[in-house]
Write a structure and sequence with these properties.
single chain; 336 residues; alpha/beta; elongated; 11 helices
Length: 336
Amino acid sequence: MADHDHGYKLLFSHPRMVEQLLRGFVRESWVEELDYSTLEKVSGSYVSDDLREREDDVVWRVRWKREWIYIYLLLEFQSTVDRYMALRLMVYVGLLYQDLQRSGRLPEGGRLPPVLPLVLYNGEKRWDAPVDVGDLLQEGPAGLRIYRPQARFLLIDEGAFGEEELKPLQGLVALLFRLENANCAEAIQALVEELIGEIQRSDAQELERAFTVWLRRVLLPARVPGVEIPAVHNLTEVRTMLAERVKQWTRQWEQQGLEKGLQKGLQKGLQEGLQKGRQEGLQQGEAQVLEKVLSKRYGPLPEWAKAKLRSAEVEQLERWAERLFDADTLEALFSE
């Protein structure tokens, strides 16, 4: 995931991407009150008291009226949901505040500035962990509730957005999410065409290189694993390369899907076969034991009784065994 982290960090190191992320996906009125011309990237490297350093995330600040607001953007690309993400964010924001205080960058009066902790997540599984640290805490005495920490983060789960929701949105961030959710080579090809048009229309050429690197090093290798992606230097070259290879990749994609389907089918069949074998073996063993016990109690078993034992399920054999000493005859034992 290192390339994915680096690719997103590169993309969201551009103020245009941060502005579109906030305007498009933070549905709160104060977002429209920000002065996006003042967006300024600040250091995301902090050293805690135990000398451990964090420099994985992207931190911005932007003017709201006469004050600075900080945007702590945590880019999260793990395959599993982190149950304790809210706790991590509380610590990270604490390190940001500590750094601002130590470096003398607090506003006049020494009060801590507002911070929006934002997690951009694109794992396969939908996010289902708490977004508030309070939901991780045990209940305690009522008198302790006023001391409970309060720390909430804003989650943007890319995979939770459907195409019908993303397509009407304008901008590069929506196209980024749509590319992440694309499930075939033809869809990626069409979206790259839209991406080129959006970059030209919005005069965002400074982002073209970042998208080119991300497509070549992250998205395409994930969609066509094992295929060597040729070197490309801009989105026009990406478009040309896709036009030449999309049919070949589609066949490979379909072949990989077929192989995965066959593999899953074989695994399922094997598991069901083993389960069936275990069940049949258990049934035969119990039937043989019960036949010996019945022969000792009732004498040699007639063929109809042996047939009942052979065809009975394990649960039925166990019920007959429980009734063994209450039934005077075979007929009474086997009657329901």
